[in-house]
Amino acid sequence: MEKKKKGFSFPHTYVMLLAMVLIMAVLTYVIPAGQYERVEDPNTGRMVINPDNYTLVENNPTKFFDLFKAVPRGMNDAADVSFFIFCTGGAFNIMLVTGAITRGIGKIAIALRGKEKLMIPLLVFVFSLAGATIGMSEEAIVFIPLGVALARAVGYDAMVGMSMITLGCAVGFNSAWMNPFTVGVAQGIAELPTFSGIGLRFVIHGVFFIVTSWYIMHYAGKVQKNPQLSVIADIEAEDAKNPNNKIDLDNLEKLTGRDKLVLLIFFVGLAILVYGVMTYGWYFTEISALFVGMGIACGFAAGFGPSKIATEFVVGAKDIVFGALVVGVARAILIVMQDGMIIDPIVHAMAGLIGDLPRSVSAVGMYFVQTFLDFVIPSGSGQAAATMPIMVPLADVLGITRQTAVLAFQFGDGFTNSFFPTAGTLMACLGLIKVPYDRWFKFMAPLMAIWVTLGTAFVVYATITNYGPF
After folding, report:
1. What is the rounded CA–CA span in Å between residue 359 and residue 463?
2. Do 135 and 195 contact (CB within 8 A), yes or no?
3. Gap between the Cα atoms of 420 and 371, Å rounded
4. Which residue, 329, 379, 323, 342, is CA-closest to 19?
5. Measured between alpha carbons, how far is 269 from 277 in angstroms, rounded to an integer?
6. pTM exceeds cut of 0.85
7. DSSP run (H or E) holding 35
8. Looking at residues 346-374, what average pLDDT do you find?
9. Does residue 470 register a pLDDT over 70?
10. Which of 249 and 66 is assigned the larger pLDDT?
């Protein structure tokens, strides 16, 4: 009998996340609980840790039943993100069923024939500017379905469509030359002039833009030549069965008056979204409300009745249950760590490790510690508040410039937002396009290795040149 070789099978996304919850629960029995005092930082007005006041507290290990309670608590804690995914997916499905989006994307695809690859660096660059200036991250989720539809229309897959948007934002977020939520907060805590040292960050932006665009274009070219090389070939085949996902460019129907009205509502809605985010600081609730309104308006513009609109909304929401719930399951990891009070001890221990390193490698050590800590503190501003009060005096003692310490934080926080399963925005994006985390891991791992290597090189350069405030 012929023996079949079995390769490594990546566990189901939920299995992997629940395994992490279990591991963190076990660590609450191993790591002594501790706590930093929180004080208000006069430079930023944020509550930050006092690095001189760390105390051990009574252990609060995760009980057996608490382990299971962490999952619904995580879902409740991440409810804004989960319901945002439901609302966006339901509303977009209404727009998709009208056919207007499909025909509109088809027109763009026809115009791009022969130069499809130019679309990738263009979109990466546009979204990188948003990431570098306004810290666009969660707000980009609403553009994902549009990017996926456009990518599929020119012969790519959903991974390319998502990557053009999310990795574009990541390029800007990682370089962060004017990101108020990461570099702005970190520099305030470090008592550096706001957005100082911008010259090197411009260079970083250029390098990461080139590398990331090339990576996506290389993958897209392979998929276009042979769709079976897609890491989500089976998912693409399944989605192709949905007539709303098919665009026949050779027999594309003309845009009707109703189509034009639907597209007008859609693009006016996106303009309102940008204005609301930039002017009023809209977040998940406001954006969800906007998309529900857009979906209903587009449905009526297409001639749908109320029941048809409601039906299509439910269909769209139902299709992305996996992704909407996975955000809450991932949040359970942090719930367990917070209840067990082991986050501060991990920060304390990591800082102690850096202090024992020689100056030549301490900055790189700082960078890798920040990268590790992003797993347990996925919020950029939250990580700055938790780590920079320690890293700044540590940098002073080790003879590392404070600007270099900010750079190490910037990379450590930024890169893994596109990789760690505890990153809510990443899981939301994957949920929206119905792609399991293990497929994203396979696609993203080589690029992550490149990013981390480049980040190390830039941190070493900053250390050698005594990267300063200007």
Report:
1. 9
2. no
3. 10
4. 329
5. 12
6. no
7. strand 34-40
8. 82
9. no
10. 66
